[in-house]
Amino acid sequence: IRRPPRSTQGVSSAASDVYKRQVYMENQGLTDPVVLQLSDGSHRMYISRGASVFSALSIDGTSFSVENGMRVEEGKGGVPGALLMSDGSPIIFVCRRDVIYRSVSKNGLDFTDFEIALEAPEGKMICDPSPERIRDNLYLMAYKEKPEDVKGPHEDYVRIATSKDGINWQKQDGAVGSGSVPALLILDKLNWKVYVSGPPPHARSHGR
Questions:
Q1: Where are the beta strands (DSSP E) in the chain?
Q2: Which of 39, 45, 53, 119 has a CA positioned 20 to 30 A from the CA of residue 105?
Q3: Over the stretch 23-45, which tens digit does the pLDDT of each residue have?
């Protein structure tokens, strides 16, 4: 895993310093790191290992040490998104094909009661939640939606959901645009950007 694109600090560091640093490696497929800066200034990274999530902690945001145990047990969901709620509680979002689940933790380590945050429409899949808190009563999430029978990212598109409390989410009408694996970057209370991966629009299939 290299510095995660979903960490605002990671994006800024990579863009300004133009370097990459390996922070953790193992002989299994690891994807979708997301980093939260905690109240004491340390950083906790949540990392997907298949359909499960583990975590690593860093004092400086550069050197990470893997923490004991799993944050999300195998089979309960992967591809995490996470944020700190207005009271400082961490909430994690994971996906399982057609549902994005959420769970709130008191310590950032124990996530147990998973409930539905968003469900895919019939015939669709959703995943890759990228949530952010705009202010105390406004949360924003970018996520991927795609036809469930299509392989690859060529028909992926990004949608937005909003929440007043970080718990209950409402889908917004329409798609933001084509693309996959969105990363939401909040510039200020009125301005934000979504970064996506995947083939450019002119290279996408229009057969469906």
A1: 31-37, 43-48, 53-58, 65-66, 78-84, 90-95, 99-104, 115-119, 124-135, 138-147, 157-163, 169-171, 177-178, 180-186, 192-197
A2: 119
A3: 777 767 889 999 999 999 999 99
